[in-house]
Amino acid sequence: MELRQEALKQLKQFSEQHLSSYAAKRNFDYGPKMRTNTSVLSKYISHRIIDELTVLRSAYGAYPFARIEKFIQEIMWRTYWKGWLEQRPQVWQDYVTDLAKLRSQTQTEQYQQAIQAATAIPCFNDWVKELQTHGYLHNHARMWFASIWIFTLKLPWQLGADFFLKHLLDGDAAANTLSWRWVAGLHTKGKHYLATTKNINLFSGTTYSNLHLNETAMPCIEAKQYPITPLSFTNPNYDNALCLFHYLDCSFAEQSPLVSKSKQVAVLDCVSHLRSLQYASPVLDFKQKIQSQLQQHLATSLNKDVPSISEEHLANFVKKHNITKIVMPYLTTGYEHDLVEKIKKEMKEVTIEYAVRDYDKYCWPFASKGFFAFKDQIPGIIAKFM
Ligand SMILES: Cc1cc2nc3c(=O)[nH]c(=O)nc-3n(C[C@H](O)[C@H](O)[C@H](O)COP(=O)(O)OP(=O)(O)OC[C@H]3O[C@@H](n4cnc5c(N)ncnc54)[C@H](O)[C@@H]3O)c2cc1C
What we know:
Layout: H1 2-17, H2 22-25, H3 42-45, H4 52-62, H5 65-86, H6 90-102, H7 109-115, H8 122-134, H9 139-152, H10 157-167, H11 173-184, H12 197-204, E1 242-245, E2 264-269, H13 271-276, H14 281-302, E3 308-310, H15 311-320, E4 325-329, H16 335-346, E5 351-355, H17 358-363, H18 371-375, H19 378-385
Parallel strand pairs: 1-2, 1-4, 2-3, 4-5
The structure holds flavin-adenine dinucleotide.
Flavin-adenine dinucleotide (FAD) binds at residues 26, 38-42, 45-46, 74-75, 77-78, 81, 138-139, 142-143, 146, 164, 168, 170-172, 175-176, 179-180, 183.
């Protein structure tokens, strides 16, 4: 995959030139023209064009642990969010339900000013434009943005999370939804993140004045509790199965040789589904590109015909090829997963099973409490997988 080559090149360059100063410099947002103090790998990692272990191994091989500990922890934040949401999928379902209820609020002047970069807060307007142009924001800018959205503009966090998810090239249901909840004070109950003019001016490299941010707001609260749903995984048998890939785990085939045993291989087209949810065009184009490259890559490496199949054509394909079992790389909670759950209900004649990576199977159960408890497991995770 061309995108994989691009990602590996970026990883190499970052590891060799900037990783050693990551801990000291990562919090500074120097703007879109100077993105070397963080890896900017998120759009690749979130689609597993390169997976977490590839990135961890590259860092681990380059420097002593103490030097790269902060970077490893940041990669682990992704694993933590994924595992946390996987054990509480109701958080996502409630978010989707809330969004439908909040739809009328997108017509308000306050919301329209926010998404059109027309608020009275210049830094916020700058980030809106940057997000729409580049499909990316620095982590600190994401925190400031979410905090201003919730506490100064007083807009619902769910609408902000929706705006992010549909404009970020790295948009990820777990990292995004849970980070917004974290800023609001709903993840660590009562502990919210308040953006301040002083902090923005210190780390953004721009001197903004008269921002008039709400720096004393109280955290958001919710009555609902989210108990853990225990994870359960199967070990699917690929014999006579259709192995149905998707763009959220592009490197799955490389670490699972059993895939070659499947009767048919195809890629599920999820882009049309996201188009119906009104994702921004650059995000749809990026996902379309990933999907096409994944399809070509699988066809070459497995030496098989690999079609791309949309939801509407799946039933016909299955019937034509006499398929009764579909195996997919595990689909984590999010819109693509919702699509497959809908397909499962409609296509009763086939079973759909998920194949899960050892890394996810091992790490996700540790994400049962806060990140600090998860962090204690990092040495064990490193020892097992490096
Ligand atoms: C409100 C908000 C929304 C966010 N939404 C997303 C999202 O949709 N998708 C997404 O991948 N990240 C999200 N993040 C996390 C983080 O901002 C990005 O992962 C990071 O900015 C990507 O830049 P980078 O690749 O240079 O990161 P680096 O600092 O170089 O980190 C390396 C990798 O570690 C992972 N990572 C780093 N920090 C985090 C984090 N806090 N949470 C999860 N993973 C992390 C990413 O895969 C990243 O590529 C969000 C953060 C906030 C505050």
